Amino acid sequence: MRTRIKVCCIASREEAQMAIDAGADALGLVAEMPSGPGPISDEEIADIAAWVPPPVATFMLTAETTADAISRHLERTRPTTVQIVSHIEQTEAAKLAVLHPHVRRVQVIHVEDQGALDLIPVYAPYMHAFLLDSGRPGADPPELGGTGRRHEWSFSRAFVDASPLPVFLAGGLTPDNARQAVRDVRPFGLDLCTGVRTNDRLDQAKLKAFMRAATTA
Fold first, then answer.
1. Which residues of 3-15 are buried (b: 16+ CB within 10 A; e: fewer)?
2. 206: closest CA among 170, 175, 171?
3. What is the CATH number of the domain that holds 146?
4. Which of the listed residues 6, 22, 36, 53 has the most CB atoms within 10 Å of its CB?
5. How many angstroms separate the Cα of 107 from the Cα of each of 130, 131, 167, 178?
6. Which domain does 8 fall in, by range?
7. Smallest Cα–Cα separation from 24: which of 51, 44, 3, 1?
8. What is the rounded distance in angstroms from the CA atom of residue 22 to the CA atom of residue 16?
9. Number of folded domains in the chain?
10. What is the pLDDT of residues 68-119, one digit of tens each?
11. What does pTM read for this prediction?
């Protein structure tokens, strides 16, 4: 099965076009976060999401933690997919599924130890996919993505094997380790941000190198 590629931290239509031209399956649009790279305004997210052509998916990354707040965020931005970067309450995940049954919902799991696998049954009934990242939600301020760090991939492989849903892998991915990530973890998709950027700008050469590595694993 072909590994899907999601290019995150898209900051403009120009970066979106660069990612699409490189073969990206999805684009990540980062809203306001407590920390990390790439946030843009809700107005910019809405503009890019409306402009991106099908079948490319647009993932809006939200730090909101209640179904009502996430719903309002979706109404402002209108992406095809919402990526929930915090570990929210199960009741909120269930409520969001009722409020937005036609929006694809992706729950981020921050892999700090083997306990990440315990969250599979918590969220699986209400989500369409998982995304494994290397954040530290309990830090001050919370780290909810874009750390540039790898987590322990053996935990990620165990998560992929146990999950009934597709799983994206994020955290410290670069052109140099993309092939290994695909071979070791066998995720549905790879999610990248800092590993293909130079001076906070999407780097075409790094992006092309990443795509070559990921698609030839």
1. bbbbbbbbbeeeb
2. 175
3. 3.20.20.70
4. 6
5. 5, 6, 10, 22
6. 4-215
7. 3
8. 10
9. 1
10. 999 999 999 999 999 999 999 999 999 999 999 999 999 999 888 888 999 9
11. 0.93
